[in-house]
Amino acid sequence: MSFPDIAPDLAARMPKLRGRLVANQPLADLTWFRVGGSAQALFMPEDEADLAYFLGLLPAEVPVTVVGLGSACRISLNALPMCSAATSDLPCIQ
């Protein structure tokens, strides 16, 4: 299952975004047990400031799940209508 691609609209709202923003990204590649459906959009920030910028401009109606290292989170096997932020490369958030 996939959702409408919201990544271009989000990117247009955030012209100074430096991290990667991709649509319908499988979360299994990011979790310790290699399970999980796709996120409607996945953001991989360049650094803490990039994450703060993204979250500050993200519309309030878009739900967010922070994945982190993917070892202590519950992720549905179904596709999820949300925006996920993968923060495993950010030392202050691991």
Write a structural description:
The chain has 94 residues and is an alpha/beta fold. It has a single domain, classed as Uridine Diphospho-n-acetylenolpyruvylglucosamine Reductase, domain 2. The protein is built from 2 helices and 4 strands. A 4-stranded mixed sheet has the order 1-2-4-3, with no helix packed on it. The longest helix has 10 residues. The protein is globular.
Distance between the termini: 29 Å
Mean pLDDT: 82
Helical proportion, percent range: 10-25%
Q: How many strands?
A: 4
Q: Domain count, please report it.
A: 1
Architecture per CATH nomenclature, i.e. the level-2 architecture: 2-Layer Sandwich
Q: Structural class of the helix and strand makeup?
A: alpha/beta
Please tell me how large the radius of gyration is: 12 Å
Strand content: 15-25%
Globular, elongated, flat, extended or rod-shaped: what is the shape?
globular
Biggest sheet record: 4 strands, mixed
- Please name the fourth-level CATH homologous superfamily: Uridine Diphospho-n-acetylenolpyruvylglucosamine Reductase, domain 2
Instruction: Return the CATH class.
Output: Alpha Beta
Strand order of the largest sheet: 1-2-4-3
CATH topology: Uridine Diphospho-n-acetylenolpyruvylglucosamine Reductase, domain 2
Q: pLDDT under 50 segments (min length 5)?
A: none
Secondary-structure topology with pairs:
Layout: H1 7-13, E1 20-26, E2 38-44, H2 48-57, E3 64-66, E4 80-85
Parallel strand pairs: 2-4, 3-4
Antiparallel strand pairs: 1-2
